[in-house]
Design a protein that fits this description.
Order of helices and strands: HHHEHEHEHEHEHHHHEHEEHHHEEH
Helix content: 40-55%
CATH class of the largest domain: Alpha Beta
Strand content: 5-15%
Distance between the termini: 45 Å
Largest sheet: 5 strands, parallel
Number of helices: 16
Amino acid sequence: MSAHVMDPAEAAAEGALSLEETLRRARRVIRQEAQSVAALEDRIGDAFAGAVEAILASDGRVIVAGIGKSGIIGRKIASTLTSTGTPATFLHPVEALHGDLGIVGAGDVAILLSKSGESSELRGLLEYLGRLGVRVVALTGRMDSSLARHAEWVLDCSVAEEACPHDLAPTSSTTAALAMGDALAVALLLRRGFGREDFARYHPGGALGRQLLLRVRDVMVDGDVPVLPPDATMRQAVVLLAERRGTVAVVDNAGLLLGVVTSGDLTRLMEREEHFFPISVSEVMTRTPRTAEPDQLAAAAVGVMERAGVMALPVVDGEGRVVGMVHLHDLMRAGAV
């Protein structure tokens, strides 16, 4: 059965808001949640620092737990921690008391989430964590709650009100808890010195991993690089430009890069010279071309091409010898951007 959509007259009779007023309220939700997150900034202090240092010093992992909407936010926090260098797992408080407590070790640190701090489902878990000696970080909206009293570090995630018009559905509070969890993850990332290369190792299968791991050497043409000596003529260059995708490197006898001739150079030459075939490539080439290195990030090579307005770069080794040619289209196909 399809849902009945009220016309404006029916909506007015039912007390529903007009579309214009609904949009105004929707914008208010965004504003309220933004304000709730902004208020957290002044709460980053000693308790936050203590939690960060305890997690860093732990020889176990982070156990994240919460029930309901807090549990959903907890799962995301655990995922973010793990992907940024802090091993973490989500533990459902109810399932924990029915067999899953075996994953908790004495060297772990627990992050427990509860807006009220009085979730009955967390009490049994808190008792067990206490017996085991697991240190507890609380993300809660009530600093005087049972959870706050049993935690070693309490991070204040309280909000003035929920964005829900009835102040009931978790909205601003879950956004605040999520932001506080992200702040913890990033703080730990910074303290660990977790860099782009580390991030790429944790995300090898996605587009981000490809961008961070892909090197110029993985994409460049290195078997039959189009090169010419400086005394070659433009007649010779025309053939290579047509066959080898519009860019030719000019090198000396040792293979050192002297310049580059492109299809654009050829076009400009043809516009001003009727008889251009006998002209040497050294007269036409760009003498200070942009280059790439084999171990350079492929994404960085794309940036060089975009800024210079070129479609290919000669790849040179540490001594300036040409070892390959990398093309923008190949980089795009490989997922460098």
